[in-house]
Amino acid sequence: MDGNGRWAKERGLKRIDGHKKGAERISDVLEGAMECGIKYITLYAFSSENWNRPKTEVDALMKLLAGAVEKYGSKLIQNKVRFLTIGDLSALPPKTRQKIEALKQSTKDFSALTLVMALNYGSRDEMARAVSSIAQDAIDGRINPKSISWETISQKLDTAGVPDPDFLIRTSGEMRLSNYLMMQAAYAELYFTRTYWPDFTKEEFIRAIDEYKMRERRYGLTADQIRNK
Description:
alpha/beta; two-stranded parallel ribbon; single chain; 14% strand; three-stranded parallel β-sheet
């Protein structure tokens, strides 16, 4: 969800105003996802590198996060949306963590849609933690190193139990993954738009999904092999 700061700057506003507007956009995208029959949607809300931003902005983002969980949590419950997170939550303020964990608990049995929020998440950090855990399992004799496969690794990632993404959207015109789901997105279709996240409406989201529907996903096969399946 990129471009909040630039959106605000172009309007003579503070960066946090852009983040606030961006938080409002989440409801629209969730509504579009439900209309399209999507069962899982993951939003990159705060990366492990975002701690390097000015302290005033980080503090404001943490307050905004806590407020958003409280403000929009009831709407998730009302719409039977399950709420999950990926990333290392231990660095978040204790009260924010408590609100997040409470919402996860309140929605754990819902299945209309699963919203996964990436908080203090970075793909490299995730991989390092996964490899460390696998190495410890090998040392303790719980796993044979020769038997390690992608399935072994995927079960150690933060996204264990969540399907790999089919489609990855990045707003604001930047064309990179920025340390986001790098292993899980190995076969994801990529979509880049110049629209800033605060302007990324439900209609824009549905247009992106329509673009996805036109793509042919081959997973290393030829087009003829796919058509003759």
